């Protein structure tokens, strides 16, 4: 019995050392006390007892990530490590635009000492021409957009356009009013008759953006068409805006990302202006002229450079400021966007 007890202790020591080295556990045989046989005087053979194994804990199920329905293909972009914006957005925008214009199709009805009747026919006449023309407008707009694909954004907006269009008109009075009011001995000369057409329109904008890039840079091409409709005196406006932008994306920590960019912009504005203007006394008898007009104007030089920045404050809020500077135009854009 003494020999068996020592062997058991040595077996326990070896088994403990094996556990310390993380080797698969060795079953331990534990000696069980028995009673001696009164006849033979021998002890019963000890019965091995297997250690009780603890039930293994079930492995935790992997976390299932959900993906939004839009943009289409957004899941693949996210799994590849790209940062994409939330699909839906709503923006408030303020736009101020100054544009020098060219004129065409100037038609007038002109009368001495009175206003031409409202239904008078407007005709193109050689003795009435336009001079300096400039449009100054401010647009406040609400815009909604959706990223249909990670690379394609569609948007639509409605806004209010206010401002004025300045048009200078030159009238050759000698050609308009013949002898005896204007005569070679005492010519009437030319009269500069500037007028201002007020703009108070409702605008509707539709467009799209194609974008490409990574977490560190981006490039985008946008196309927008705006129709601005007047209520009273016609000063309808149609604008086509094509712009290319590119720049780096700089992480400022968390979800805050700053994106400065540069680019080029083609902004073509077509305006139809009509109304009535009166001059002061122009002739010896104290009469002036009344002029009803209608003229089509378009941007003189529609190309401009772009400098701007977009600041993503979080995954929900972003701000943008942009300035366009051309040879005969300048434009400033400020916007605040919320993405639910």
Percent of residues in β-strands:
over 45%
* First-residue to last-residue Cα separation: 81 Å
How many individual helices? 3
Give the ordered list of helices and strands: HHEEEHEEEEEEEEEE
Q: Averaging pLDDT over every residue, what do you get?
A: 81
Explain this structure to me?
By secondary structure, the chain is mostly beta strands. It has helices at residues 2-20, 74-79, 173-176; strands at residues 88-112, 128-149, 152-172, 190-192, 195-213, 217-230, 235-248, 250-251, 257-278, 289-299, 303-312, 317-326, 329-338. Strands 1, 2, 3, 4, 5, 6, 7, 8, 9, 10, 11, 12 and 13 form a 13-stranded antiparallel β-sheet that branches. Strand 12 and strand 13 (329-338) form a beta hairpin. The longest helix is centred in the first third of the chain and has 19 residues, at 2-20.
Name the descriptors.
single chain, 13-stranded antiparallel sheet, 13 strands, 9% helix
Summarize the structure.
This protein is mainly beta and 340 residues long. It has helices at 2-20, 74-79, 173-176; strands at 88-112, 128-149, 152-172, 190-192, 195-213, 217-230, 235-248, 250-251, 257-278, 289-299, 303-312, 317-326, 329-338.
